[in-house]
Specification:
With 648 residues, this protein is an alpha/beta fold. Among the domains are: 173 residues, 3-Layer(aba) Sandwich (Rossmann fold), CATH 3.40.50.980; 122 residues, GMP Synthetase, Chain A, domain 3 (2-Layer Sandwich). Helix content is 33%, strand content 23%. It is built from 22 helices and 30 strands. Strands 5-4-17-16-18-19-20 form a 7-stranded mixed sheet, with helices on both faces. The protein has a 5-stranded parallel sheet with strand order 7-6-8-11-12, sandwiched between helices. It has a 4-stranded antiparallel sheet with strand order 21-22-24-25. Strand 4 and strand 5 form a beta hairpin. The longest helix is centred in the first third of the chain and has 17 residues. It binds adenosine-5'-monophosphate-propyl ester. The site of adenosine-5'-monophosphate-propyl ester (PRX) has 22 residues, from helix 13, strand 20, strand 24 and strand 25.
Length: 648
């Protein structure tokens, strides 16, 4: 730390918010941040109670703010609220009634601007459709749709009635969709004929049909017509949205639901072959979504806010739908790919809608860097005032490019760390409060007691790497894993006693800035998509030629990590070249195209411990450093490792 050069480099890469930005910011200066943080830490009940009262509508108030029976928590105990009411009805008695809620652009260039009044009407009608079909609070719906306004309409209609929704990303295969429908025991599916992606139709209904072959409990499939492609409709099960909508009433009061009512379940990858259904509640979830819209995105009434994520991931839930709408923002939604028809599609949209807050992923930024500055330079990006990043660590070079080329040196960047499980942003700069350091998510937000600790749970020294943990429960925390409370306990609260284990490694510098370094478990992060090594391994061993498989992430300049699979074959299996291709396709079919391995390596055997566990750590080392230096004392067959390293 005393090396003068290191100090100099560090100081050079600190970015102060401009005085103009600070003047208008919701939180101004480091002292204001510290005061908020200290209050939330010392008086969490008062802090969150006041915030929830100010920012949300409640049919009935809580008896107490939270109840912590480790590791289970309840927030706003006994209160009644409704997420759909908070996102819609509450704005109708204010000037926001005619404000644009959703600014939507389809990939082919079609567009829709939907006001809060109109969105309320669409949601109420669809909620009446669901009600008329007999769906009610406590039921589960799986939503498998393209990025069209009817996707938030479907979510908000479910929320209005208390139907717990689970949105499945449109890139998931029939197999993955089926597993989620079955695990959730969902009786209702809401989908579309298809959506547009890079000029081609993604035929969603076809995938639903394939998934439903083994889902007899599904009673209704409601299909929205988006692409007008040919679909088959099964009599007695499949229904057209537009048929049901005809004659539906515009009036559908929102159900007063318990604050702890399960709003949604979102599946994510864990360290086993089986995805986890992360369950989120209503009141606490909304409170933290709204709070972070103001603290992190510094939302003002006149902002045009765009998060480029897909609603199939948690980022889209919290920061396209629930957060922005509960905060009364104008939220932009785009259906298609960032490079279609050209590499400037993002910048065209920013220019066209005068976007002021832009939130995307490091992978998207790196992909755009590769295409050159001429694409953003051809557009007027002067409406931008704040940029954001999420989903994976952002390397300082990409950060600097984003700041210089997109933000023209004028826009702060909020590098936001959070997870499907956390529901809302946990560690991030407040852009008018603190100087930024490229690559660092900076400080925990108020109410988030994050720390970096060693294997015994002891805080590590500044500059040292450790596990990122959270000490106290927060409002938007996951409540459990659907139908698996034991897994919830052991996965998140059983690793280090009494604290929430994030699965990430991090480092904190002498000034308290936190840099999140990546996963410490068998979870990979490829283009910001969370993938489980075990899930891909299970998919591979289901192939008839595969005897064993081990999957690891290897560093990749563009996607952060890339999937690398080591495979041993059964006797007599075919030509490697051809089989490699076939296995890549196989994984895409079993999980989804985004999980396709970048590389398949065939090998005679895999390194294992004497008890038979595959040593992924060694494989990770081989693909990362091309050699092995770590401890191999428990290894069954030393020769395997030297062979694998030599093959590299
Ligand atoms: O490893 C961290 C990484 O993404 C993981 C969470 O993935 P998921 O649940 O799919 O949610 C992604 C969107 C919130 C984390 O455990 N991650 C997320 N944001 C960052 C990050 N890593 C570094 N910096 C970030 N800003």
């Amino acid at each position: 730390m005393t090396d003068p050069e290191a100090v100099e480099t560090r100081e050079e890469s600190v970015y102060q918010p401009s005085p103009e930005f600070v003047r208008r910011a919701n939180v101004r200066g480091m002292e204001a941040y510290r005061a908020l943080y200290a209050r939330a830490e010392r008086q969490p009940e008062e802090f969150w109670g006041e915030l929830a009262e100010r920012e949300l509508f409640w049919f009935e108030k809580w008896s107490h703010v939270f109840e912590w029976a480790p590791p289970f928590v309840k927030w706003f105990v006994g209160a009644k609220t409704n997420a759909s009411y908070n996102c819609l009805d509450r704005h109708l008695a204010t000037p926001r009634r005619d404000k644009t809620a959703i600014l939507w652009e389809g990939e082919p260039g079609d567009q829709r601007a939907i006001s809060y009044f109109e969105l309320h009407r669409l949601v109420s009608r669809f909620a009446n459709v669901l009600k008329a079909r007999g769906w009610r609070a406590g039921d589960r719906a799986v939503i498998y749709m393209p990025m069209i306004p009817e996707l938030p309409v479907a979510m908000l209609a479910c929320a209005r009635l208390g139907i717990t929704h689970s949105v499945v990303f449109g890139g998931f295969s029939a197999e993955a969709l089926k597993a989620r429908i079955q695990d959730l025991e969902a009786g209702l599916i809401i989908t579309a004929d298809g959506g547009w992606r890079r000029g081609r139709e993604v035929r969603l209904k076809e995938t639903v049909d394939e998934a439903l072959i083994e889902c007899p409990q599904v009673r209704d499939v409601i299909v929205y017509r988006r692409t007008a492609g040919a679909v088959s409709m099964k009599a007695g099960r499949d229904l057209w949205w537009h048929d049901l909508d005809e004659g539906a009433s515009d009036v559908c009061p929102a159900e007063p639901l318990d604050a702890e009512h399960p709003l949604f379940v979102l599946y994510t990858s864990g360290t086993t072959g089986k995805p986890k259904g992360i369950l989120h509640s209503t009141g606490g979830y909304l409170a933290q979504c709204v709070a972070t819209m103001k603290w992190v995105f510094d939302l003002h009434e006149d902002d045009v806010y765009w998060c480029t994520a897909d609603i199939g991931w948690v980022t889209g839930h919290s920061y396209i739908v629930y957060g922005p709408l509960a905060a009364g923002a104008t939220t932009v939604m785009y259906e298609g790919a960032p490079d279609f028809p050209h590499f400037d599609r993002f910048w065209q949209i920013v220019e066209k809608y005068r976007v002021s807050i832009f939130y995307t992923s490091p992978t998207a930024i790196r992909a755009l860097i590769r295409q050159g500055e001429q694409w953003p330079d051809a557009h007027d990006l002067s409406s931008l005032r704040l940029l954001g990043s999420v989903g994976e660590p952002i390397n300082p070079a990409a950060w600097e490019w984003y700041h210089r080329v997109i933000g023209k040196g004028r826009c702060p960047i909020v590098d936001t760390w959070w997870q499907t499980e956390t529901g809302a942003i946990m560690i991030s700069p407040m852009p008018g409060a603190m100087p930024l350091k490229p690559g660092s998510a900076s400080f925990p937000l108020p109410g988030v007691q994050a720390d970096v600790v060693d294997v015994y749970g002891k805080p590590v020294e500044a500059g040292k790497e450790g596990f990122l943990i959270v000490r106290r429960p927060w409002p938007s925390m996951l409540r459990t894993i659907w139908r698996d409370p034991e897994r919830y306990k052991s996965q998140y609260w059983g690793r280090l006693p009494g604290v929430y284990f994030t699965g990430d490694a991090a480092r904190r510098d002498a000034e308290g800035y936190i840099t999140v370094l990546g996963r410490v478990d068998d979870v990979m992060n490829v283009s910001g998509h969370r993938l489980s090594t075990m899930e891909i391994e299970s998919a591979l061993v289901r192939h008839p030629s595969v005897a064993e498989a081990a999957v690891v992430g290897r560093p990749d300049e563009l996607t952060g990590q890339a999937v690398c699979a080591f495979v041993t074959l059964k006797k007599g299996a075919a030509d490697h070249q051809q089989l490699g291709e076939e296995l890549r396709r196989w994984v895409a079919h079993e999980i989804g195209g985004f999980a396709r391995p970048a590389e398949i390596r065939f090998t005679e055997s895999l390194p294992k411990t004497r008890s038979g566990k595959i040593m992924r750590r060694l494989l990770r080392e081989i693909v990362t450093t091309h050699s092995v230096t770590g401890d191999v004392t428990t290894l069954e067959d030393m020769a395997v490792v030297s062979r694998l390293a030599a093959e590299d």
